[in-house]
UniProtKB/TrEMBL annotation:
Gene3D superfamilies: SspB-like
Top-level lineage group: Bacteria
The protein's name: Stringent starvation protein B
Gene: sspB
Cellular component terms (Gene Ontology): cytosol; ribosome
An example Gene Ontology biological process: positive regulation of protein catabolic process
Pfam family, one: SspB
SUPFAM superfamilies (alphabetical): SspB-like
Length: 112
C-alpha cells in the first residue's frame, strides 16, 4: 500500500500558515469511529478545529493521526483525529487551503 501524502501536506500547510501569521484550521469528518472530539461542537457530522500552536497543547501530526489537547468551555480536552478524517486544512483569515478526499467510516466515538 502506498504511503499517503496527506499528513505531509497537512504538516507543511500548518507550518506555512503559522509562518505567515495566519491561523490553521482543519475540517474534520466526525463519522469516523476513532474521531475523539467534544460532541457539543459537531454540526452536520463535521467539526472545525483551530490547530494553531497557541491554541493547542502537545500537537502531534503523525502519518496516521493528529492529536492534541485544547480548551473547550474552559475544560482541557484530548482530541484525536485520524488523518483520513481530515477533509481540509485552511487559514481561517482568508479560507485558502487544501482539501482531501475522505473515505466513509460510520460510528461516532465522541466525548460528552
Amino acid at each position: 500500500m502506498m504511503l499517503s501524502i496527506a499528513p505531509y501536506l497537512i504538516r507543511a500547510y500548518h507550518a506555512w500558515t503559522e509562518d505567515a501569521k495566519l491561523t490553521p484550521h482543519i475540517l474534520v469528518d466526525c463519522t469516523y469511529s476513532s474521531v475523539i472530539v467534544p460532541k457539543q461542537f459537531i454540526q452536520q457530522n463535521k467539526i472545525v478545529l483551530n490547530i494553531a500552536s497557541n491554541a493547542t497543547y502537545n500537537l502531534i501530526i503523525s502519518n496516521d493521526n493528529l492529536s492534541f489537547k485544547a480548551r473547550f468551555s474552559k475544560k482541557l480536552i484530548n482530541i484525536f483525529v485520524p488523518i483520513n478524517a481530515i477533509n481540509s486544512i485552511y487559514a481561517s483569515e482568508n479560507g485558502k487551503g487544501m482539501f482531501f478526499k475522505t473515505e466513509e467510516k460510520p460510528n461516532l466515538k465522541l466525548l460528552d
